[in-house]
Write a sequence for this structure.
């Protein structure tokens, strides 16, 4: 039986832009911490080897510092098994790229790290395992990176466990870009693989073979790099180089797959392990339905808030006197949660009750002004509406401020 | 308060003024010329009703200069009663009375302070430049409205009571806070619909600037990234190309090596073929050389035949040319002889013509001599006449016109001076008073002992000395000269007269000397005229002078004496001229013939000798080849000689060359050798492959070298590209950082912009709403002023924007698109608008129960007559009030003080003439 850890899409040195500098640093650092977690899990489960299915780095031009850290991390004493890596579409085997620079350009063998630059079968020392690596040389290609394996069918008498290691899109969804390194959906069956370890998509996904066993799997990212349902809430600024699609949305938690295969032809036993450092959450809360105090209490009571990167979007309608209390939620989230957490209050509307209205704006010019602003806030023109909404908030903020009746 | 009447005594220039029975409403025009005291009346009314206690001494122009103390009494209606206040200024004399129902007056107070306070209270409780008076009591020529800060707060408050609330305290605090926030980003409010301009250096502007800089940095990083992408793509292409070139190189190398092996195998056959080729080529060349030598021999023989024929033809030409020359020379000799004979006849005719001319000259000279002698006699008579007249002029000298004019002036001036000298003397007499001391009289230098009561004749000077008083001196003469000076001038004139007439021999004191000299001058002028006439006649008879005439006579006589008598010729002119004519005809005929002969001789000479020999008379001859007979003969001899020498030379060449037989034998030998070489070539003929082997090897070698070079170049480029890619290490992080900075700034700018736009919107909307509210409240005033504006035809304004203080700020054009500041209008328009606003505001606070008086001192001085004409209607309308308006306005009592009564002459106006002494008496 062999046991190995399947990782992919680590995107070290990730390009995120929608955080403040301090938060950026922490988020980037979290990826290394998650990698350490994965290494610890590998040791804990006594894996025979580790597979990294592409995109170890976010780009082939990452800095030397970023390039050196995973090298040092896997080459150190804490690791006692080989680590097989293939270049992905973000860090392809570009001449002069990260793989041609120190320390990755060193001649093999290194102690543990095995950078598989060539598509040719690799025997795992001391184990009945043959790895079929499919390194990428370009960001985009219409070629199936696993196609070459067809030239190496299982020979009679060969009882090694055949594992494919590839990076690309499994051709199982409609409208996939043709140059996204499409891999045939039945690659594991067609190529006689016991397991096809894939990278590229950021969610964990297991695909059954004809024999009904899950022999093809995406491990997902080891650390989130986007918010779940990010389009509706927030963006990190990171963008896949093969076009933004649902498959690149994260699950909010970092994962690795622990795979056990008894022998050639035996079904793989796959177990998802949480190795992420931060939990990324994006949530929407309607303040119309719940008192501010209740919302505050809920978010104050959550566990692991410091390692939760929260994007909270508040919606609904508030009375002017309660509007200032939104600050309590903002302060709580920004104070207790991860430094990159934010509360979005722009969508909270402000509307006084009928009895408050006269008291707040009187019967002078302000009452006319309020009427006009409300008309504009109902405009079909988004920019007019946006300015009017904001102006309404400022109006109530001023009239409710100290000194106003 | 309404004025019923007033009395003013001893105020400024006013001695006494009484105005009574003023109407409660309507326009009252108090008119009088400048200096009447109109402004003084206004000052007195202000002082009495509002500004000064009677004890006050600060009365301005009303401050008394004499003993009289100014007294002002004003009767007015207020609070339902009729009041009379009387103040004797600079004293404590004050009195406030109220009219009783019986028509009498009841004293309310005589205390100066109380009288002042109560009166002031009844008039509104303010000084004359505060409260409603600020609007309605205008000082002289005042036309600007008060500024918002200066406008009386009490009046504003009363207007608010009438019109309603404009802006609440909450509104005030709100807009104040909005403005405070707004000023964080902006400085100047834009027109409605325009985006405000950002304040330079404000946080948003600074962020935008920073964003601009960061965006440029980001763009630079992105450019690097795009460059890198291009390099990566290029690297891929180069990789593919290197593989392809390596494949091509291997193929080309293989082909080249195969061709080399093939070449080695065929080398012996190739060499034999090459040698056969060379031998055949050599034999072909030998045959060609032989053929060429035979052709040269044939050509030489042909040339020898041609030279012999040419020599024979040249000899025949030379003989014919010599014969032609001989014939031409004989013809020329005959023509020359005939020409010489004709020349001799011509000389005889010309000699005869010369003698005829001499005879004609002799006859003409005799005629001329007779004419010269007649002219000489006439010239001598004229000369004598001129000489006689000149002698007469010398003997009776006469002055010229200039001298005559001087003499006439001299006599006139002398007469005038004499007249002055002869003028009647002054008669001086004096009569001293009874106790007066006796005066001392000196007349013309004489002292008279006692001249009282006597007439004294004064010729030149008289001096009267009065002891204890002084002296009186009288000097006769003109205004500038005394008699002595006149006498002196007269003497000078006489002296000059004598000096002038002396040369003409006239006694100086002869009474008719001047007439005598005038006669002399006239006679002399006549003689001068006659001399001129005689001189002109003499010039005509002897233009060169008499001596010239005499010289010509002598010359003619000498010519006659010297002339020889010609024999055999007629002595009369007629036959002589006929002979001359016949001789000239013979000469002409001989000339023509001679000319014809000359031409023939010349033609012959030219044909024989050419132009040079003929004296170069035909210029063309020099530029063309000679065609004359002698030249032809010479040339023919030369040609004959040349042709003969050439024929001999060709014969010698022919003799020296190889004979044709030998040459033909050599050719046959060479052709046999060529035949043999061609057979050898056929026996060593190569196959097609063998023939192209060398060429193919060369092409294959060059092709391989080319591919090898391209491979080296491509590999070098790939190496360079890879090196360049390697230099982009860390670009990803730099790109992420640059993008993060730009993203963060963009978000900040967007937030700040939203904030600024929201606050600006609050500000703009507040202004709009306030404006609407204001226009609603100001409706009654606004509509009334706009109606009056239209009546006056002031611009095409549709509305007026009022500020919070009820004062107009801007005028809005008809289409609403254009606004203009109130103060940007012309002075006249501002004056009219301001007065209309004053009346509209004032009348709003005036009610039938509490009517108000408006006092206008010299208003509308900047208005033209058309506007003034229309302004009367406005004044009338304002005074009448609008009871139907909501809220109602007016009526007003309008007192207009003016020096232009015609400006305010309209029906219904009460006119008071301040020039009427029953109304106003001025201080003298």
């Amino acid at each position: 039986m062999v046991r190995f850890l399947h990782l992919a899409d680590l995107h070290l040195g990730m390009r995120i832009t929608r955080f403040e500098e301090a938060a950026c640093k922490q988020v980037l650092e979290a990826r290394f911490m998650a990698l350490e977690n994965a290494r610890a899990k590998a040791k804990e489960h006594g894996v025979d080897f580790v597979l990294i299915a592409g995109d170890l780095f976010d780009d082939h031009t990452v800095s030397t510092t970023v390039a050196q850290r995973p090298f040092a991390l896997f080459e150190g004493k804490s690791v006692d098994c080989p680590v097989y890596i293939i270049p992905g579409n973000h860090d392809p085997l570009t001449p002069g790229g990260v793989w041609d620079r120190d320390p990755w350009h060193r001649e093999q063998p290194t102690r543990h790290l095995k950078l598989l630059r060539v598509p040719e079968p690799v025997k795992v020392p001391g184990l009945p395992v043959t790895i079929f690596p499919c390194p990428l040389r370009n960001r985009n290609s219409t070629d199936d990176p696993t196609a070459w394996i067809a030239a190496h069918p299982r020979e009679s008498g060969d009882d090694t466990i055949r594992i494919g290691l590839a990076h690309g899109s499994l051709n199982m969804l409609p409208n996939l870009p043709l140059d996204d390194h499409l891999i045939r959906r039945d690659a594991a069956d067609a190529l006689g693989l016991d397991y096809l370890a894939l990278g590229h998509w950021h969610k964990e996904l297991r695909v059954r073979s004809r024999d009904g066993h899950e022999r093809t799997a995406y491990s997902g990212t080891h650390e989130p790099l986007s918010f779940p349902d990010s389009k509706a809430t927030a963006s990190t600024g990171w963008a896949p180089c093969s076009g933004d699609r649902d498959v690149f949305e994260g699950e909010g938690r970092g994962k690795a797959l622990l795979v056990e295969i008894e022998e050639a032809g035996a079904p793989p036993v796959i177990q998802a392990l949480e190795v992420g450092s931060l939990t990324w959450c994006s949530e929407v809360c309607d303040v119309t339905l719940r008192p501010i105090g209740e919302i505050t209490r809920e978010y104050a009571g959550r566990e692991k808030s410091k390692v939760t990167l929260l994007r909270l979007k508040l919606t609904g309608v508030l009375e002017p006197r309660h509007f200032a209390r939104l600050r309590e939620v903002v302060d709580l989230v920004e104070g207790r949660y991860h430094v990159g957490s934010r509360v979005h209050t722009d969508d909270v509307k402000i509307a006084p009750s009928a009895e408050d209205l006269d008291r707040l704006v009187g019967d002078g010019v302000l009452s006319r002004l309020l009427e006009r602003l409300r008309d504009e806030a109902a405009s079909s023109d988004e920019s007019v509406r946006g300015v009017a909404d904001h102006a309404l908030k400022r109006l109530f903020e001023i009239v409710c401020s100290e000194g106003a009746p | 308060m309404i004025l019923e009447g007033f009395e003013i005594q001893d105020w400024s220039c006013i001695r006494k003024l009484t105005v009574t029975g003023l109407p409660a409403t309507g326009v009252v025009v108090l008119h009088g010329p400048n200096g009447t005291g109109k402004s003084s009346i206004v000052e007195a009314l202000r002082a009495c009703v509002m500004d000064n206690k009677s004890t006050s001494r600060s009365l301005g122009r009303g401050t008394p200069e004499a003993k009289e103390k100014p007294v002002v009494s004003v009767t007015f209606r207020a609070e339902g009663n009729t009041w009379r206040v009387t103040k004797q200024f600079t004293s404590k004399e004050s009195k406030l009375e109220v009219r009783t129902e019986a028509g009498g007056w009841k004293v309310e107070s005589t205390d100066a302070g109380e009288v002042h306070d109560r009166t002031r209270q009844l008039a509104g409780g303010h000084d004359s430049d505060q409260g409603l008076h600020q609007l309605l009591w205008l000082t002289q020529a005042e036309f600007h409205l008060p500024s918002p800060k200066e406008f009386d707060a009490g009046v504003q408050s009363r207007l608010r009571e009438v019109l309603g609330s404009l802006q609440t305290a909450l509104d005030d605090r709100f807009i104040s806070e909005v403005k405070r926030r707004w000023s964080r980003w902006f400085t100047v409010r834009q027109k409605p619909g325009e985006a405000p301009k950002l304040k330079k250096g404000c946080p948003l502007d600074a962020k935008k600037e920073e964003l601009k800089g960061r965006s440029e940095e980001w763009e630079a990083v992105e450019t690097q990234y795009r460059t890198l992408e291009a390099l990566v793509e290029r690297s891929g292409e180069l990789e593919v190309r290197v593989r392809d070139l390596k494949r091509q190189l291997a193929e080309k190398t293989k082909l080249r090596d195969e061709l080399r092996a093939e070449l080695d195998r065929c080398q012996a056959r190739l060499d034999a073929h090459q040698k056969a080729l060379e031998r055949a080529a050599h034999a072909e060349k030998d045959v060609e050389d032989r053929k060429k030598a035979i052709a040269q021999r044939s050509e030489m023989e042909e040339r020898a035949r041609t030279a012999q024929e040419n020599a024979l033809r040249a000899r025949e030409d030379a003989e014919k040319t010599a014969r032609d020359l001989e014939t031409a020379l004989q013809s020329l000799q005959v023509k020359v002889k005939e020409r010489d004979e004709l020349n001799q006849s011509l000389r005889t005719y010309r000699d005869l013509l010369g003698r005829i001319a001499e005879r004609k000259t002799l006859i003409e000279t005799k005629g001329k001599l007779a004419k010269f002698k007649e002219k000489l006699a006439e010239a001598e008579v004229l000369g004598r006449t001129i000489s006689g007249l000149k002698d007469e002029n010398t003997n009776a000298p006469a002055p010229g016109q200039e001298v005559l004019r001087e003499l006439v002036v001299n006599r006139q001036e002398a007469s005038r001076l004499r007249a002055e000298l002869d003028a009647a003397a002054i008669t001086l007499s004096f009569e001293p008073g009874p106790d007066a001391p006796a005066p001392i009289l000196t007349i013309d230098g004489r002292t008279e002992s006692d001249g009282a009561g006597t007439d004294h004749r004064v010729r030149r000077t008289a001096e009267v000395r009065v002891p204890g008083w002084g002296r009186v001196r009288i000097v006769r003469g003109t205004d500038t000269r005394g008699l002595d000076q006149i006498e002196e001038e007269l003497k000078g004139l006489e002296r000059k007269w004598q000096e002038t007439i002396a040369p003409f021999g006239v006694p100086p004191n002869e009474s008719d000397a001047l007439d005598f000299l005038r006669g002399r001058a006239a006679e002399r002028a006549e003689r001068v005229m006659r001399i001129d006439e005689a001189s002109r006649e003499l010039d005509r008879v002897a233009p060169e002078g008499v001596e010239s005439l005499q010289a010509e006579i002598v010359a003619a006589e000498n010519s006659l004496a010297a002339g020889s008598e010609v024999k055999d010729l007629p002595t009369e002119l007629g036959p002589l001229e006929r002979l001359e004519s016949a001789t000239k005809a013979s000469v002409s005929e001989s000339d023509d013939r001679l000319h014809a002969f000359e031409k023939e001789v010349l033609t012959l000479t030219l044909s024989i000798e050419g132009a040079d020999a003929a004296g170069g008379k035909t210029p063309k001859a020099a530029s063309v080849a000679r065609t004359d007979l002698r030249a032809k003969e010479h040339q023919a001899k030369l040609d004959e000689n040349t042709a003969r020498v050439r024929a001999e030379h060709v014969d010698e060449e022919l003799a020296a060359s190889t004979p044709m037989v030998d040459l033909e034998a050599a050719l046959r030998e060479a052709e046999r050798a060529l035949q043999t070489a061609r057979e050898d070539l056929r026996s060593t003929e190569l196959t097609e492959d063998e023939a192209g082997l060398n060429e193919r090897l060369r092409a294959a070698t060059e092709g391989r070298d080319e591919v090898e070079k391209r491979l080296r170049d491509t590999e070098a480029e790939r190496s360079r590209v890879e090196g360049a890619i390697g230099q982009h290490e860390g670009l990803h992080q730099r790109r992420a950082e640059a993008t993060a900075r730009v993203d963060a700034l963009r978000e900040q700018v967007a937030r700040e912009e939203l904030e600024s736009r929201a606050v600006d919107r609050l500000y703009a909307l507040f202004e709009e709403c306030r404006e609407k509210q204001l226009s609603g409240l100001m409706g009654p005033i606004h509509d009334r002023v706009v109606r009056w504006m239209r009546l006056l035809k002031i611009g095409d304004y549709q509305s007026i924007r009022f500020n919070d203080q009820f004062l107009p700020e801007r005028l809005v054009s008809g289409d609403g698109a254009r606004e203009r500041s109130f103060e940007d209008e012309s002075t006249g328009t501002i004056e009219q608008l301001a007065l209309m606003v004053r009346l509209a505001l004032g009348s709003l606070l005036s009610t039938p129960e509490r009517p108000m008086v408006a006092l206008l001192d010299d208003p509308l001085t900047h208005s033209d007559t058309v506007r003034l004409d229309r302004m009367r209607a406005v004044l009338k309308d304002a005074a009448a009030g609008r009871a139907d308006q909501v809220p109602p306005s007016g009526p007003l009592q309008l007192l207009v003080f003016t020096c232009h009564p015609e400006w305010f002459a309209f029906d219904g106006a009460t006119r008071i003439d301040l020039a009427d002494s029953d109304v106003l008496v001025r201080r003298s």
